[in-house]
Structures are given as structure tokens and as C-alpha cells.
Amino acid sequence: MSNLLRDLREALSGVTVIAGEDVDQRYWSDWYRGHPTRPLALVRARSTDDVSAVMSFCNRHRLPVIVQGGLTGLCGGAEAEADAVILNLERMSGVEAIDLDAGTMTVLAGTPLETAQKAAEAKNLLLPLDLGARGSCTIGGNIATNAGGNNVIRYGMTRAMVLGLEAVLPDGTVLSNMNSLVKNNAGYDLKHLFIGSEGTLGVVTRAVLQLQPRPLFRAAALLATASFDALVGTLTAVRRGLPGSVDAFEVMWPEFYGIVTSEMPKERLPIAQVHPFYALVQVSGNDEAHLAASFDEILFACSERELVTDAVLAKSEREIEAFWAMRDAVAEFQRLVGPRTGFDVGLPLRKMEAFVEHARVGLASRFPGAITAFYGHLGDGNLHLMCHVPNVTTQPKKEIEDIVYSIVRDLRGSISAEHGIGKARTAYLNYSRTESEIALMQTLKRAIDPNNILNPGRVIAV
Amino acid sequence: MSNLLRDLREALSGVTVIAGEDVDQRYWSDWYRGHPTRPLALVRARSTDDVSAVMSFCNRHRLPVIVQGGLTGLCGGAEAEADAVILNLERMSGVEAIDLDAGTMTVLAGTPLETAQKAAEAKNLLLPLDLGARGSCTIGGNIATNAGGNNVIRYGMTRAMVLGLEAVLPDGTVLSNMNSLVKNNAGYDLKHLFIGSEGTLGVVTRAVLQLQPRPLFRAAALLATASFDALVGTLTAVRRGLPGSVDAFEVMWPEFYGIVTSEMPKERLPIAQVHPFYALVQVSGNDEAHLAASFDEILFACSERELVTDAVLAKSEREIEAFWAMRDAVAEFQRLVGPRTGFDVGLPLRKMEAFVEHARVGLASRFPGAITAFYGHLGDGNLHLMCHVPNVTTQPKKEIEDIVYSIVRDLRGSISAEHGIGKARTAYLNYSRTESEIALMQTLKRAIDPNNILNPGRVIAV
What pTM does this model have? Predict the structure, then answer.
């Protein structure tokens, strides 16, 4: 094995290759922390050529490669393996160009999302991808996992923002698909192979992203409804009243609202009473007066129609930030409640209520006293669930997952709306995808990575 | 060969199989009419099972299959071959379901676009795909070619509207990928393999489409500018002023405007004077007063800034229709001018002017007296060009294409923004795509269609 490392170092002259025993524990796993593992070696690529050299060497020697971006993944896709080389892209960071006419950005894969967001902002443009991990996650990881986040209802997932990309194939071939045209039907649109396939078909090294005009003003409200129907009715009213201007419609069930506000003094709570549903709604646009008046009017009409039973309009940017801080306090769940098993499921709007009910009952009857907290992106059909079972030394993750994913399967939902499959969910992939779909995924994987060296064991078994 | 036909009929009991000598000439080619050819046979599938049986039989017998939708393609993708079976999907027509909550439509591949549009409209929803061939082209063909059209600037290409689909693979496997969720990251997003690959990887048989709320009011103007910069400035102003509300920004160069208005009496022309650029701009929304006032204001500001030199606002729906009729009169080019060689190129905004200039000069110097007419979708970077060379018995298509495509290549544009490659443009594919991209397309084709029986010779040579 030490010969292999020596040969790797030789093949990659000038590139940092850290032997397994010297690899910092930070690189042993992503945020999922399934089985943090010391890898064979860690390579810190500086360029596409470095990535190509690594892949070419590892393909020749049948060495597994695990690609790492910002390590914020939630399903173990970037977790190290004892026999694998970690290909880390953190050094490939930087915004290479912003084209003001076209509103596009050319960016390296290792660039943190927040860095790219700020570069767009500095040119008065918007990179509309946004998620809690923005400070750490990288553009390459966002693309590989087709990241979702808070603004999908308005701008779509990462896939919708990628015009072109460069990727290194498992055999080291550099695939330049740096399209910057909005319309290009000259042959297969290859970028889609690499978006959302979690690094199993190629290593994304740079990309051309479509930016958007930055809306000048935003308005937000926290509201409560008495029923799920009323919640859906409110979403429809906001969408119809301000088409194309709804940034977010985040729903919180009362357990979730209770947990994230548990450390706030009661008199500082925007809505102190307990309601069946809470929603954080944000709209934005360029015509401040029209935006504010329309938003007011829509919410007022929703109250009149008894859809909305309580509502607080943010009176300042600071109050909007405070609403979001509450929603983002989900990151504190572990501290506030305890270790959790998390879910990210996709469901048709009309099946969400049934899902919540079945999951609540199913988990409570199997694990009396279990704490379940539901929240999600209503307009996208995306629900998150956190479950904590009290008084156990280890959370019964597998049993909890079996219960929840069986409900998802029976409701014909998706076991992963935005987080992906990684290593954590491969066993459940057939709950959401047919046999012929999985067979076609395997055909693609075998055709592009015949030696199964790139992120092996992720997404699908080959 | 007659044995093969007998066996095919036997394998497809109950399905209409028409022998080559009885095949109506309508099925010999699409609108491209490269080399209309009598096929071996024509099969009129009624169901996905029929399609599966045809593919399975033809795969076993290594019989080429050409798929036909509405036959409106402009690059020979659906043209028959003497040794091939035509798989026609016209009988697989119908909207199966519209889900009002999710705003989705489930539709069979052979459904004409206009039928699907009207079904959406009847439910007060919008299927935002629209193109001149709407009455004949089918949803399956729209998906296979990733059709563009008039509203791409606002709603994207067909790809952006497809949530899920069902496709039959070359070996007859039915791939059900009928996703209806906005967010679904459970494994590879396989639908993208079939969207825009022009039927070379599978036969699309049905789909789930995302519909949009139908805007209640629209406004349109025909305007003229003195320079390309002023045109771009106007586009930017309209987009900023009414973000998310711009349906179309169609630009016409003066030759084009002259041809499409040549049969109108001068006093009825909306703009009678000759200008360097004309544009048809349409916006729409739900707040009529706000829409009209904003649009007025934006156009007035553009005049004040001397971006717009002449403008006519449509005063009624009828006038809007009249503007569009002018733009759509491009279909009359052949009658008004003569046989033409047509182009559909994609270019960065800032290279459009250079393209027009180089193409005009290049064609005029090689073919004195050549008539060239440019028009296109400015916001999408998509230009069309018609060229007619007078006083020749046959249009020198190949030479014209060599001249135009070389300019596109040198400007790093796309040889096909929306029409696709088909049979007509395979020789130029490498003008817009790299060697490694074409190699990867071939890898995909070989993996999914190892016997090369499905639409062979389309898009890429294998």
C-alpha cells in the first residue's frame, strides 16, 4: 500500500497527498457522521488537471475515490472509506467571471456557496440558491447533490441554475460542457448526468450559473392557520396575488414551533398562542409600494376568509431576520431535544397531512414518548421530520427509518426530496424508484465508471 | 422481408401494421423534407404496450425504428428510411388527468400541443409551451426535442415543464418515471436522458407536465430602436421593471419586417418607417391596472432615454393578435420570397450583432443578390435566419450552411438553439460540441441502444 501512495505522489507531482495516518478527522465524514473512517489518503486538488490526474491514476489502479466538497451532506455521500483516496476540492475555490449582460457566473467547484452569493450581490445580481449550510457547502457539492433550500418555490433547485459545467470522468477525461447559452439543443444535454447524481458519474470541477436580478425589497409574515386546507388556501392566495414573487412558504407544525421558540421569553414570541400550523411567508420585488400593499391586501383577504387565524407582518429587515433565525434554529434540535433521526421526504400536497398523521402515530405507538417535529417547504411538497426517542443509549435509527420510509412508500412519495441518497438511503431507494429505473441507473454507472471506482456504494449498488 | 412483416404482424396482434407500399407519403418525412422515403412498414401504436412490443421485436431482429410524432420537425429527425419501421404515436392521444392542487397534467405522447394547451385553459391553468406548429406537433415530440418557442424567456424550454415521463427503451423495457413531485432527489433524474435526445435513447410515451397559473391580462407593444445596444437596453429595462412578467421579446431585423409586412397596405402598418431593429414585446399578469401602468411607464422611460425610437402599444386583444400574426408570417417566407435555407442558432447576446453582420456579408459576397432575413428571441440568445439565393434551380444549401455554421463556430455559439440536430445537422455537431462531449454521447447511446436500432443516424454517428 505504501508503494501505491508513493506512486500516487509521483503521478501527482506538486499536489498535496496526505497519508491516511495524517488525515485530520474533519475529513473522515460529512455532517451525517455514519461511520467516520480514516481514508487511505487525502489529495488536495488545485486544478482540473490535478483532478484528472487523480482519477486517471486511481482508475488504472482500481482505487476507490471519494469526492469531498464542503462536507455538509446529510446522507454520508462524502464519508471516507478505509481503502479509498479522498479527493478534496476545497482549494479549487474562486469566482472566475461574472457576465453582466448575460447575468451568468463562472465559478470553481470548491467555492463556498456564500462566497458565490456575495460575489453576485456585489454586482447587484442574485444567486438564488440558499440553504443553512451556505458558509461551508460548496458549489460543486450543491451541483452534485442538486441542492434545494429555501427559495425553490420561486427559483427551482440547483439544476435550474446550471447552464454549463466541466466534469472529470472516472477515467480522467475532462468533459468541458461550459455552455453559457440559455437555449442549446445541439446534442444531448450532458450536464444533467452530473447534477444530482452525487458524484457517482463524474467530478464537477467548475460551472456556469444563471444569476437573477436582485429584488430590491422584501416583505415577510409569520402566520397561523387552523387547518391544513386553510394553509393550502393561503399558499394559493399568495401565489395568485403575487405571481413570481413568492420566495418562501415555510410551514411549521406546533411541536417544531414549540422547540425552536423554547428559549425565547413568551412576551417576545411573534405568535404566542398554540395553533395547528405556522407559516413563514416571504415575497420580494422591485416596486416596494406595490409589493407591500399587495401583500397586506392578500393577508387581509385571507383573514377575512378565515384562512389565516393569526398573522404578524415583519416591520423591518431585522424582524424578517428574526423570523428566519427561528426557522433556522432547527440546527439546535440536538442541543434542545437530543440526538435525532432526520428525514427529508417529498410528497404530493394532498398527502402531507396523512403522512404527518401516520408518522406521528406510527412512531409514538412503537416508541412511547418519542418527540417528533415536522416542518418543511409547503410549495415544494417537501417535508422534514426530526425524531428523538428518549431514554435510550442509542437512537433506534433503523427502526425509525423503516417506519417512516414505509409510510412514504405507501403514499408514493420520495424518500429524499433534496438531501439525496448517499450511503444512508441506498437500501430504501426502491421505496421510491421502480426496478427498471434502478436498472437504468446501473446501466449508466457501468457505462461511465466501468471499474466502479468513483464514490462507489453511493446512490445505487452496482 | 415479407416474412419479417408477417412475423411483426404476428408479434403485434391487433396493431395496425401498414406495409411500405401502402404507406401514405405524409409519413415519408417531417417538415424538413430532406429525402422523403418510403419505409419498410408503418406501425400505429395504441398503447405503451404496443410500443414495447414493437421495440422488443425490432431489437431482436435488428430492425431500425424511426419514431414519429406530429412530423413538424425541421431537421429530418423523423424522416423515414427504406429499411426502417416507422413507429407512429398519433393514436396515443389524450389528456389523462389534470391535478388542480399540484397544477400538473398527465398526458399521452401523441397528444397535439394545442389540445393539451386547451385542456389546461379549460381548468384556468396555462401550459406555457407555445410554438407555431402547435396544431400539429405532439407532446412526445416536444419532449424528445426539448422544444422552445415563444415563451422561453419567461417559462423556459420544454425541459423545465416536465416533472416525469414514461419511456420505452430500445429493448422494449418500459421505464416508468412518472414523477409528479417538484423536488425529488431519490437517485438519478433519468427523465433528462430522454428530453432533447430526439428519440435516440427511448420512446417517450406519456408525461407529467407542470402547469402554471394563467395570467389574466396581457399587454403588448411593437417598438423600434436605432441600435442593438438600445435594443438590449430596452430588454433590460422591461425585465427589471416587470420581473417575471415578460412573456416574449421577439426581435426582427428590417429585411424580415419588410418581408412579413410586404402584403399589408402601408397605411395599416403599425410602424411604417424603416428602423434598424423592431421588437414585439409582451408582458402579462393578474393586476391589470398595475401591469398596464408599469408597461406604459417603462416604455415611456425608454423613449425618454432615447432607447426606443418608435413604439405602438396594442389597444386591444385583437391588435395583440395582429402583432403576433405579423411575427408568425415567417411561415409564408417560401411563398413571398422563394425556397429558403433556415437556421436556428444560439449566441451570447453580445455576439448577435457580429453574427448578423458576418452572415449578411459572407452570404452576399458568395451569393450576390441573396436575400437574408434575421429574427429571433432576444432574451434567449436565439436567432433565426432565412436565406434565399435567387436565379438558381436548387438552393445551394450545403454551401450556405458551411458559411453560416462556420461563423457560429467561430463565435462559439450553438448550431441549434431549439430545433435540434436530427439528420440535417449531424455533420456540424462538432462545431458546437467538444470531442469529449460527443464521445460521452456515444457512450450513452451504446449503453442504452447497443444494437443502434432506435432513430439511428440521428444526432450522433455511432
Answer: 0.96
